[in-house]
Design goal:
nucleotide-binding; 7-stranded mixed sheet; P-loop_NTPase; alpha/beta; 36% helix; transmembrane transporter activity; ATP-binding cassette domain-containing protein; MacB-like_ATP-bd; 11 helices
């Protein structure tokens, strides 16, 4: 799995699939026991305790499903955001806290206590707190798991805006497939392995990637107009992910359609001319 700097990615999977374990390792909360986990060119597997402390302090921010882990209920919103900066003796704490609350749409609620705020507002305070150390990576574990659909959309809007305006790399773990469908790249994990990816692109992006754009339109103006119209139209493509040894996990619905069960033997045929691999049930 590779996540580029500045991406907004959702990770989905059933309970026990390994998605939260991955997030905990990315956040420096759990240490990998094998393989490699490279962030900003550094392998977390080789970190010592001091490296992990600096990594958590300077590189990552974390948003939990249970925002009680981020919030102190008897403090106001701005005091909650100031708290981690106070512990690190940062200067201009109040100014920075107000800036972060404004970034998550809570500029009018800065002096409200947590018990005066809705669940969605509390979660946005938690997001502001996760940004207090100015992280380059923001990790969110089921950030919309305890809110309604409208609030879920508002929280996703905050993440998208932070990603767009601040260039923060954001990784969201969620079981909410409706929410995941609103994110351009979704990675599915099954049995501890990446099984597939769903990548959403506008028709404009597809047209830009195609070298036929100049052939389809007579003038640059026509091409530009077509691109502008295509920016509003999106298509999704699901890709199966090969691991480093060449193994892949086929979508469950494909196996069921062919009557193939786990552990069954299958036959694979290569058609080089068509650039296809055909898989069928062995007789």
């Amino acid at each position: 799995m590779q996540i580029k700097k500045g991406e907004l990615v959702a990770i989905v999977g059933s309970s026990g699939s390994g998605k939260s374990t991955l997030l905990n390792m990315l956040g420096g909360l759990d240490k990998p026991s094998a393989g490699s986990l490279i962030v900003n060119g550094r392998n977390l597997l080789k970190f010592n305790e001091e490296d992990y402390m600096l990594y958590k302090r300077n590189v990552v921010g974390f948003v939990w499903q249970n925002n009680a882990r981020n919030l102190v209920p008897y403090l106001t919103a701005v005091q909650n955001v100031e708290l981690p900066m106070l512990l690190q003796n940062q200067k201009n704490r109040r100014e920075r806290a107000l800036e972060l609350l404004d970034a998550v749409g809570l500029s009018k609620r800065v002096n409200s206590r947590l018990d005066q705020m809705s669940g969605g507002e509390q979660q946005r305070v938690a997001i502001a707190i996760s940004l207090a150390n100015n992280p380059s990576i923001l990790l969110a574990d089921e950030p919309t798991g305890s809110v309604d659909t409208k609030t879920s959309d508002q929280i996703l809007g905050v993440f998208k805006e932070l990603n767009r305006t601040k260039g923060i790399t954001i990784v969201i773990v969620t079981h909410d497939l409706r929410l995941a469908k609103k994110i351009d790249r979704v990675i599915a994990i099954r049995d501890g392995r990446t099984s597939s990816e769903i990548i959403k692109k506008s028709h404009a992006e597809i047209m830009r990637e195609s070298k036929k754009l100049g052939e389809e339109y007579a003038t640059e103006e026509e091409a530009a107009a077509a691109l502008e119209a295509a920016d509003e139209d999106y298509v999704s493509e699901e890709l199966v992910v090969l691991d480093r040894t060449g193994r892949l996990q086929l979508p469950k619905e494909y196996l069921e359609a062919l009557g193939i069960k786990g552990g069954s033997r299958v036959k694979a045929d290569l058609d080089k001319e068509a650039e296809r691999i055909y898989i069928k049930k062995a007789e």
